Amino acid sequence: MATVYEHITEARRSNRRLFFLLIDPDDTEANAVRDLVAAATENGVDGFLVGGSLVARENVVRSVQLVKEATDRPVVLFPGAAQHVVPEADAILFLSLLSGRNPDYLIGQHIQAAPVIRDYNLEAIPTAYLLVESGGMTSVEFISATRPLPRNNLDIAVAHALAARYLGMKLVYLEAGSGARRPVPDVMVEAVSQQCLLPLIVGGGLTSAKEAAAKAKAGATVIVAGNHFEQKRALKELRDFADSIHAVGH
Ligand code: 1GP
């Protein structure tokens, strides 16, 4: 069976785009989560991220189980800290907060997480996590005590993505932050995609299929949305997002 990373690189090679839905583990209403995941699966969502900055481990465990029960698509951990490494997921984004200069999020949490990842036999995908300034203080910025990259400086963003590649990382995640006022600019997605060549994940503050498609057109391989669907229970829009994202590159 192909790994999650092979699934993503194959999409990039064949110029296809993927739509991943972020599930917040603090969303504790089990039936609502099941309904959202089932609707997402029926409406073309390609995979699920599970995680957040400020969540309890037991909620991550329960959330992964719920999502796995409701879908046959890949379920990927998106951890905010080492204690969010839980079993049963298909893979984990092994995130290094490369936009920041806080050693705990560059390498510290990773040391605690690594033996657990080994013991659970999880597929670890080394990922450069680049937080981009989005018009307000996000949870990631506050919790990690790091500053985001300036949104109008493409050279700085490209330099971080290139450093990720030369360090051997396999994915770049351009993140505006959950519920961001402004998503990552299309021109930044384009510049990073063209110059870094690693598959790119883009998320944070996407509230319409049009915006999501714009990130896909700019070169993101995986487009992530969470807040919009969690807050609004906007199940009808799942198909619009998925179709607009999938239409790019065809
Ligand atoms: C956050 O990129 C993800 O880490 C998704 O953001 O919840 O704003 O869609 P939203």
At the first level of CATH, the class is Alpha Beta
Helix content: 40-55%
Distance between the termini: 26 Å
CATH architecture descriptor name: Alpha-Beta Barrel
CATH fold topology: TIM Barrel
**What is the overall silhouette?**
globular
What profile does the largest beta sheet have?
Answer: 8 strands, parallel, barrel
Q: Strand portion, in percent? A: 15-25%
CATH level 4 superfamily:
FMN-linked oxidoreductases
Number of strands: 8
- C-alpha Rg (nearest Å): 16 Å
Spans of at least 5 consecutive residues with low confidence: none
Encode the helix/strand succession as letters: HEHEHEEHEHHEHEHEHH
The set of bound ligands, ions and cofactors reads:
SN-glycerol-1-phosphate
Q: How would you describe this structure to a colleague?
A:
By secondary structure, the protein is α/β, with parallel strands linked by helices. The protein has one domain (4-247): TIM Barrel. Helices cover 45% and strands 16% of the residues. It is built from 10 helices and 8 strands. It has helices at residues 4-13, 30-42, 57-70, 103-120, 139-144, 154-166, 186-196, 209-218, 227-232, 237-247; strands spanning 18-23, 47-50, 75-77, 91-96, 123-131, 171-175, 200-203, 222-225. Strands 1-2-3-4-5-6-7-8 form an 8-stranded parallel barrel, surrounded by 8 helices. β2 (47-50), α3 (57-70) and β3 (75-77) form a beta-alpha-beta unit. α8 (209-218) runs parallel beside α10. The protein is globular. Residues 22, 175, 178-180, 203-206, 224-228 line the site of SN-glycerol-1-phosphate.
